[in-house]
Specification:
The chain is of the alpha/beta class and 241 residues long.
């Protein structure tokens, strides 16, 4: 099959970069074995703006770069984003909802637009129906995170968890919080909980958590799902630990 020459993708300038966003949608598969997408512009919060997902991830090393096709033109992305798009596409049947990704949806070459969009990021992540936190392709041994999810769900109804909750304090009439000073011996390190804590520690050690924008990306999310390799774990289950 002959190679198709395509020009480099150029963003169409936003008329109101302080109000508009671009959303990425996948297009049907082509015969060239490349990922094809389209980029559409909407007013954030506007009645015509579709429900969308937002991706939270690390940019990673600048090289190597990988080619995707947006509006029939070439756009280059870094390896971690390439892996993320492939994982997301395989899990969600080719993006049945559009997504917002800063490296693609913001024209990074235009300083004024970039600055305006950065100011909107909190609102963008809070408006997304789902935020997907991508931890990378290199996950633990396959099945570890799934087992950890199961153990966490079991732990939340265990006598151990109830003991921690009962020992917690109420502050200003709020719901009970687990005390940070809870005796270490209350946390079981035996099976099945030992491997669970080990996996959670590995997850917390990932460089993803050191990112500058993580607070507004995760705290403002309506719903949050962590993706690590081929596995996933909901934030509401993880946060209980």
């Amino acid at each position: 099959m002959a190679t198709i020459w395509r020009s480099r993708f150029q963003h169409t300038p936003l008329e109101s970069p302080e109000r508009q966003i671009r959303l990425l949608s996948v297009l049907p598969s082509q015969d060239d074995n490349q990922a094809h997408y389209k980029l559409d512009t909407y007013i954030l919060g506007g009645h015509r703006t579709p429900h969308f997902y937002a991706i939270s991830y690390e940019w990673g090393p600048k090289k190597p770069l990988h080619e995707i096709i947006i509006d029939d033109k070439v756009f280059m992305i870094r390896t971690n984003l390439k892996d993320c798009l492939e994982r997301f596409g395989s899990a969600y049947e080719g993006f049945y909802r559009p997504v917002w990704i800063d490296a693609i949806c913001i024209d990074q070459d235009k300083v004024a637009e970039r600055n305006a969009q950065v100011k909107m990021m909190g609102e963008i992540y809070s408006s997304a129906k789902l935020v997907l936190a991508w931890f990378g392709k290199q996950a633990p041994v396959n099945g570890t995170l799934t087992k950890t999810l199961s153990c966490l769900q079991q732990w939340q109804v265990s006598p151990e968890f109830k003991t921690l909750v009962n020992n917690s304090t109420r502050q200003n009439g709020s719901a009970p919080r687990l005390q940070r000073t809870s005796p270490p011996e209350l946390l079981s390190l035996a099976d099945p909980y030992g491997p669970m804590w080990s996996c959670l520690r590995n997850l917390c050690d990932q460089t993803y958590w050191s990112r500058l924008w993580i607070v507004q990306e995760l705290v403002k999310a309506q719903k949050l799902l962590l993706l690590w390799g081929d596995e996933q774990i909901p934030w509401n289950v993880l946060s209980a630990a």
